[in-house]
Amino acid sequence: MSSKLIAPSLLAADFGNLQRDIEMVNQSDADWFHIDIMDGVFVPNISYGMPVLSAITKHTKKPVDVHLMIIDPDRYIKTFADLGSNILTVHYEACNHLHRTLQAIKAEGMKAGVALNPHTNINVLEDTINDIDLVLIMSVNPGFGGQSFIENTYNKIIQLKELINKKGASTLIEVDGGVSNSNAKKLTDAGADVLVAGSFVFKSAKPLETIKNLKEVANS
Ligand code: DX5
Ligand code: ZN
């Protein structure tokens, strides 16, 4: 079985010491950087935008996994490619023509991801799963870090894994929100491939050890 990946979410980093926190992730056992872009419309919060992402990607030495929580994401696909995104994830709920959006992301040389809100059923991906490199299952309502994990997530991972197997797809399953070393093993046992962790990593006293431990638990 391939190893389970850890993607620290910079939303919980210290923005006054962003380069320091990026270097910490570079040196850690983490696999990807998770970057949350919010527009204050699709979600009730605004995070950071293009100039900050441009500053971030000057220092990142691992794949950059961008999670767009914005309406009509097609407007910015090329922009995010130019800024150094390796994986670009759009919300199912924010796309009128998801199939076209996925092709546009891949045409810019990025992996294409689709995020599902907690209320969105897995079966909406039945006809697109073979075109999706990664499905991000939201295990909190998007918009904020530090929220509590929604338990129904385990069922959704199992359903998604069944769909991926049924269709012979090679889609990765990513889980985002409220992840810690207390639910990591149950999530990867259910079928998750990538765990996003914000507060659990950056609010910890020893983030390097926290990441190492989370990765060990996820792969145990
Ligand atoms: C929430 C974001 C998450 C967030 C996770 O809308 O998509 O990536 O940063 O933060 P934690 O791990 O603190 O729940
Ligand atoms: Zn996210």
List keywords for this structure.
220 residues; TIM Barrel; 8-stranded parallel beta sheet; 8 helices; globular; binds D-xylitol-5-phosphate; binds zinc ion
Compose a concise summary of this entry.
The protein has 220 residues and is α/β, with parallel strands linked by helices. The protein is built from 8 helices and 8 strands; from the N terminus they run E-H-E-H-E-H-E-H-E-E-H-E-H-E-H-H. It has a single domain, classed as Aldolase class I (TIM Barrel, Alpha-Beta Barrel), CATH 3.20.20.
Largest sheet geometry? 8 strands, parallel
Mean pLDDT: 98
Give the oligomer, counting copies of the same chain as homo and different chains as hetero.
Answer: single chain
Q: What's the CATH first level? A: Alpha Beta
State the share of residues found in helices, binned by percent: 25-40%
- The largest sheet has its strands arranged as 1-8-7-6-5-4-3-2
